[in-house]
Amino acid sequence: MQILRVNKITVNFAGHEIFRDLSWVIGDRDRVALVGPNGAGKSTLFRALLGEVEPDRGSITAQRDTRIGYLPQDITLPPDMTLIETALMKPPELAQAEDRLNAIESQLADPAVYGDEAKLSQTLAELEAELLRFEAMNGNRHASHVRELLAMLGFSADDYALPMAALSGGQKKLVALVRLAVSAPDILLLDEPDNHLDMTGKHQLERFILNYPKSVVIISHDRYLLDEVATQTVELEAGKLTTYHGNYSYFINEKELRRLRQQQQYVTQQKEIARLEAMIERFERWAKQVLSRKHMLAARQRRRQLEKMEARGEIIEKVTDARLMDFKIDGWRGSKKALELVAVSVAFADQPLILEADLLLRHGERVGVIGANGAGKTVLLRLILGELTPLAGEIKLGPSTRIGYYSQEHQTLDAWLDRAPLELIRNLQNSSEATAVNFLLRMAFSYEQVRQPIRSLSGGERSRLQLALVMLRQPNLLLLDEPTNNLDIASVEVLEDALDDFVGTVLIVSHDRYFLDQTVDRLVEIRAGRLREFQGGYTEYLEATGRG
Q1: Could you tell me the end-to-end alpha-carbon distance of the chain, in angstroms, rounded to an integer?
Q2: Is 1-82+168-246's fold the same as 337-545's?
Q3: Is the pTM of this model over 0.90?
Q4: For the structural domain made of 337-545, what CATH number should be given?
Q5: What does the pLDDT read at residue 323?
Q6: HEC states along 494-543?
Q7: What is the distance between the alpha carbons of residues 473 and 478, in angstroms, rounded to a whole number?
Q8: Backbone phi, then psi, for 37, in 5-degree steps?
Q9: CA-CA distance, 399 to 414, in Å (whole number)?
Q10: Burial class of 160 by CB neighbour count within 10 A (0 to 12, 13 to 18, 19+)
Q11: pLDDT greater than 70 at residue 186
Q12: In the prediction, which pLDDT does 106 show?
């Protein structure tokens, strides 16, 4: 059953067309993955569905009383309240419904109402309708439902007294999701809800989405999550929406098949168009030479045939690949042992974090590091970089090892935030402006962006700039801390290909399960201060631990 329809909407911002003639239908209990490159307009489309953006043309219509809940990328929650106090705060529409009930009940106590049969009957009808709306929002069991949702998302009663300021970014997002979902909106719009979640948190989010009783539309770069929850994938690219009736993996395969079919149809049609244009040119030449009305009419007939094809929108577009960053790391063979940790221990605030850790990375190995938030994954990388000193043990780098480091929070760019990417690259390359500009264009930056302050760049753009710095470093040991967090899926796939071709050793901290399956041949889990190794990627890890 359709609950919301987008009918040929067009949206412009400052003269720039975000999308044109967009049509889409959301049905009851749909699980939709909304995908597309960064900047394609996915968040803008969400805002249009919410009524925050007014289309220049077209319309958005929903069934009567349809309620939409929205979880944005960036959330703000009161830091001085506890987790349970924050979670129990009633959503605005539920608080309003409660106020309306109280107002109606006050009317029933008014002699002017209960003493007038017609007014009493009308007020009782209003009360019945309002009670139905209140119950649809789970208003009569709000507190118990909040606790059920918190449990589903991995919180226990022991967590209830925690101040919001003490929670991680991922945990805060889950609390915001509870507040949003407790009143059961007909459509949940989730904009990257998995950001900053560890693997346990992502698994709980998947379970939550699968069990949600109504419709969910999710924007995410986590392909594993999209495979688990989506029943259809909708791609927004180049201002157009295309629907695929399956999860992310189905979408990838079907999109390639459609691309191949379109290219074949394009080639066939272009041959037919060339044939018609040649006939037109020939008939027109003959008509001029012999002043033949017959040949002139034949030329006009063929030209009208082409014009009708264009008017009916039957001209097949040529398949063009999206503009992607040209990322390749020119690594080189270094020492046979790239890195070794021997009985390394480290503590924070007198609390042990990593205990007697042993780890050996040989040349050419691809190793992933996983663990819960706060387990010590980033600390492990900082120990290797020499930014932290272990309490005990030894860290040995191969004598010819050169490290390329990608930091999770883009700290490698901090000193350059008020300067332009062009200045940074010229400084590192010692190159001409033209050479630096061409290098940045290959990394999918625009001419305008290369001269903007780095602090004005988006998270995805800063990620690409950090990768550019890694590339210029020409390392043979890569230390990558959550490199996929801000990249769109197309850029992640470019990174995967580059790592596959890289001649060197790779150590990756990541919560991106699909990415780990594509890139690593060994996993190291940090749990309770200990390092435990597993052969294979994330799928093999699940099989080995029985956590699938």
Answers
A1: 33
A2: yes
A3: no
A4: 3.40.50.300
A5: 58
A6: HHHHHHHHCCCEEEEECCCHHHHHHHCCEEEEEECCEEEEEECCHHHHHH
A7: 10
A8: -65, 160
A9: 29
A10: middle
A11: yes
A12: 79
Q: 59 vs 11, 12, 34, 49, 231, CA distance in Å?
A: 11, 14, 20, 10, 25
CATH classification (class only), 1-82+168-246: alpha beta
Burial 479-492 (b: 16+ CB within 10 A, else e): bbbbbbbbbbbbbb
Q: What is the 3-state secondary structure (H, E, C) of 28-77?
A: CCCEEEEECCCCCCHHHHHHHHCCCCCCCEEEEEECCCCCEEEECCCCCC
Overall size of the chain counted in residues:
548
d(CA 345, CA 362) in angstroms, rounded, equals: 21
Question: Given this model, what pLDDT does residue 234 score?
Answer: 97
User: What type of residue sits at position 341?
Assistant: L
> What rounded mean pLDDT belongs to the chain?
89
| Structural domain spans, the chain | 1-82+168-246, 255-311, 337-545
Q: Using CA atoms, how far apart are residues 212 and 180, in angstroms rounded to an integer?
A: 12
Q: Which of 6, 69, 25, 30 is nearest to 230 (CA)?
A: 30
Q: Cite the DSSP H helix spans in 291-420.
A: 293-311, 377-385
For 13, the token pair is 């911002």
Give helix then strand counts, H and E, for the chain: 18, 18
Integer Cα distance of 403 and 476 in angstroms: 6
The sheet with strand 215-219 has its strands ordered as 68-71, 187-191, 215-219, 31-35, 232-237, 240-244
**Residues 263-292, mean pLDDT to the nearest whole number:** 80
Closest CA to 26 of 55, 2, 60: 2
Structure token digits, residue 96: 């309003």
Q: Is the pLDDT assigned to residue 170 strictly greater than 70?
A: yes
- Please, where are the H alpha helices in 387-479? 421-429, 433-442, 459-473
Pairing of strands 351-362, 337-348: antiparallel
Q: Rounded to whole angstroms, what are the CA distances from 186 to 1, 96, 214? A: 12, 18, 6
Q: Is the dihedral of CA 47, 51, 57, 60 positive or negative?
A: positive
Task: Give the amino acid at 19.
Answer: F
366: left (phi over 0), alpha (psi -120 to 50) or beta: beta
For residue 257, how far is the Cα from the chain centroid?
Answer: 24
